[in-house]
Design brief:
The relative contact order is 0.17. This protein has a five-stranded mixed sheet. A five-stranded mixed sheet has the order 10-9-8-11-12, sandwiched between helices. The mean pLDDT is about 95. It has about 290 residues and is an alpha/beta fold. It contains nine helices and twelve strands. It is globular, with a radius of gyration of 19 Å. Strand 1 and strand 2 (about 10-20) form a beta hairpin. Helix 1 runs parallel beside helix 2, helix 3 (about 105-115) crosses helix 9 and helix 6 crosses helix 7. Bound molecules: adenosine-5'-diphosphate and zinc ion (ZN).
Length: about 290
Amino acid sequence: MLIGGIEAGGTKMVCAIGDEKGTIIDRTVFSTRGPEETFADMIEYFKQWKIEALGIGCFGPIDLNKESGTYGYIKKTPKKGWQDCNIVGAFKDALGVPVGFDTDVNAAILGEVTWGAAKGCDCAIYITIGTGVGVGVYVNGGLLHGLMHPEAGHIRLVRHPEDSYEGCCAFHGTCMEGLASGPAIERRYKKPAAELGGCDKVWKIEAYYIAQAISNYILTYSPEKIILWGGVMHQEKLFGLVREQVREMLNGYVSHDGIECDIEHYIVKPGLGEDPGIKGAIRLGVLAKDKIRG
Ligand code: ADP
Ligand code: ZN
């Protein structure tokens, strides 16, 4: 059975053909231009294969409410030309197959619980810290949607006592994204994050924010596994600093061996390398074919 997957991003569209076991058979990447020309290239690609379903993990905000007249649309994005874009409709009409749809980060955690580092978990989260901060949430065996979809990258955080940066989130200033994203680091220190590797204070403060957010997610979602990735996490030392500070911040309150004795296996990198998003999209396709909630 061939299934198509799309990891839809603001700069690139990763398209792949896979199977129900999560094996990727073929993949290609298109740059994201206007919806019409971008979709035309993608549709031409998928038409070369006999796919039985398609899954899309998409940048947001998106409408996931199946009762809504704009289900499957990208909503109020700042990305020019993409506001109110019916992405699900475009592919359903062109390819005539069932289409599964969710946020990019929900697709990523779905990939990880199906085939990756959170395999078999009932509750797990995927946090990406890059240009923005996104959190995919899988609870009690399904992806969390609710009113819209979680936007846990925008929770408010307490500023580090040695940090006076006002935060770069246009909506909240000092939310998680405003304080800890790649652009936040860059604007605070007036240098690309990748060039600050040797500056210990940068990563101590960064870990303080990531650990604060993770502590809040542990307290609210009770995840069995936390997957942490995104461009900023290329600073490998952050993993150790974050784990240490999470333990300190929880201060023994969440009394579980996974946190107290084995946190190295609790807060981890993706098991699927660079592929959680695209493999999760393929899984969304499989579930759409079987009409199962992700
Ligand atoms: P996106 O979020 O756009 O999908 P990424 O996850 O690659 O893309 O994140 C890009 C961000 O990651 C940039 O803001 C950049 O500053 C930061 N970044 C990339 N490489 C590194 C690195 N080696 N160390 C720290 N930050 C990095
Ligand atoms: Zn925000």
